[in-house]
Amino acid sequence: MIEQESDTTLQVAETSQPKILELGEQARKNLRLVVKAARPSDYWRTLSIPGIVADRPGISDRGVTSPAVGVVSEIHVYPGDTVYPGQRLVTVRLLSEYLQATQTQLFKSAHEATLVQNQIDRLGDAAIAGAISGSRLIELKNEQQRQQMMVRAAKQELLNRGLSAEQIDAVSQGNFVSSVEVVAPPPRADSALLKDLTRQEVQTVNYEVKADVTYEVQSLAVELGQTVQAGEMIISLANHQSLYVVGHGFKREAGLIEQAAQNGTPVEIRFAEDSAELWPPLGQQFQIRHFSNTIDVETRTFDFFVPLQNQLRTYEKEGTQFLVWRFRPGQRTRIEVPVEKFTNVFVMPSEAVVREGPDAFVYRQNGDLFNQIAVHVVHQDSWNIVIANDGSITPGTYLAQNAAASLRRVLKSQSASGMQPGMHVHADGTVHAAH
What span, in angstroms and rounded, lies between the C-alpha atoms of 124 and 219? Predict the structure, then answer.
């Protein structure tokens, strides 16, 4: 008997709780209330994993070294400047005895080859007529071939040292080169990986591409008058078109992340400190490329890598063009990896649902009136709440998409007057809900 009375009391309490609140137009504007029609859809539960934007090793950065021993006599670019393949960076005055000896050898061999050719031309008719031995002509031709081989070897060595074809031709004529121009390297088009990257070209804003690759001077390692050795780093160039988003997952998450990678499941990336309104849409699908097979001994996490195609724009100042990349190495991210699919559910922003103890409520609009509806939450993350399609919400119903907590407070405040909002009193004294 006592249990039955308790159930009855609970039912009365439930029915006596207010469920309708009244909110005028100005009040809705003050709350910046957003109302949309509820439509069932599918939703993926995700793992939210921290990540960071990083350079792609061997692709993003290019080191430029000195081709020979010398002294830095001119510096043409500085950190932050934009450069293109073939543009000169630094002038190095040569001090290399080996390079000078190679130039001397090229000149001597080219001169000797010319002299031998002249002898062959002069003695050719005499050898045919039998005036001289044919073996002498053979010796001259062998000598000519030897000198030509030395010319080719010297030219190749000078090319490897950074001399241009025009400079090498000048050396052959006796005009020795005393300095070399260190230039920006050409793009690496021979890599199969880079060929894959060209499928998605860099997206630009108000920018005319002057070359296939645009570099930014990242650091300058020399000063005027400094002596540099052959192979010593002079300038570090960067091109942030192709980057990685590196996720840091724990071992317990490895199976789910590996499954997403094997199935090619797209992942969502949220970038911190990103002004999305200033840039065009990314228009790219993110997928996990590969995993690291080692675990960091300090954080106990493993890394996985998602390719990222960057966007850029430029501006000019004092006649110099500067690059601005949308994503920068070191930028923090959150990687959402899908792991479980919910079908035929209602997906709403987190602010659209208010919780009170075990209960969860949404608010359906009908003019100035908002009806509180109890719902079943099947999943919640930092941004969305997934509500079961169990009949509590009718598809197409207009529901508040934010400010649910504020609506709950307004409902409690209005109910304190003793009369539920939306009620009116008839002449006979009866009370009815608003029509």
Answer: 61
Distance CA 66, CA 69 (A): 7
Residues 155-181 pLDDT 10s: 888 777 767 788 788 878 888 877 888
CA separation for the pair 403, 34 (Å, rounded): 9
Residue 10 counted as domain residue = no
Q: How far is CA 59 from CA 193, 241, 243, in A?
A: 9, 9, 9
pLDDT at 385: 93
Query: pLDDT-based confidence at 191, cuts 50/70/90?
Result: very low
The percent of residues above 90 in pLDDT, for the chain, comes to 36
Burial class (CB in 10 A: 0-12, 13-18, 19+), 171: buried
d(CA 353, CA 17): 18
Domain range for 396:
17-45+341-433
The owner of tokens 């039955």 is: 4
CA–CA separation, 34 and 45 (whole Å) = 25
Answer yes or no: do 208 and 74 share one domain: yes
